[in-house]
Amino acid sequence: MVDREKGRLVIISGPSGAGKSTVVLQLLDRCEIPLKLSVSATTRPARAGEIDGVHYHFLGASEFDDLREKGEFLECKEVFGLGYWYGTLREQVATGLKEGFWVILEIDVQGAMAVLEQSDFEPITIFIHTGGLDSLESRLRGRETEDDEVISRRLRIAEDEIQLMHRYRYQIINDSVDQAADEICQRLVEHRDL
Fold first, then answer.
1. Edge-to-edge strand order for the sheet containing 41-42?
2. Domain covering 9-189: architecture
3. What's the whole-model pTM score?
4. pLDDT digit string (tens) for 99-140?
């Protein structure tokens, strides 16, 4: 358990393919702030190499629905029109904050807006992007995990998400993972020292 003063909530979001997960992993490894990643729950099947409880909490649809009906999610929604739900477990966030961690929510823009509308946490908000839709499309295609239809859908969603970038306190262009992680860490350190 971390023996520090009360933690802070940090929201990191941006378009699919902007490299959020990679930047967050570097941030967790490199930053002096006591960071803890909130592991989201999802109804989608695990991809190769993903571990339950590490990458996501993989839940059945009925279990997810039960938790949603009980108000156990800080935010949740069905994303990308594929029928899969994603959500942030309220208790996991509250526990991390009480233990003094700066809890990172790596969530989509709609989830971030939902947290901002109903949250008393006063989160530090960070939007990661690639600098343009062309570079984003190149990254999505380079992952080779989705077909053209899914990539096109993600790009349409990304256009809408970029329109909300101004709602975030910080906007970080991910040209270099190390540089993006260092820049985010510096912003967090500035908040700690206030």
1. 57-58, 41-42, 84-89, 73-79
2. 3-Layer(aba) Sandwich (3.40)
3. 0.87
4. 999 999 999 898 999 999 876 778 999 999 988 777 787 878
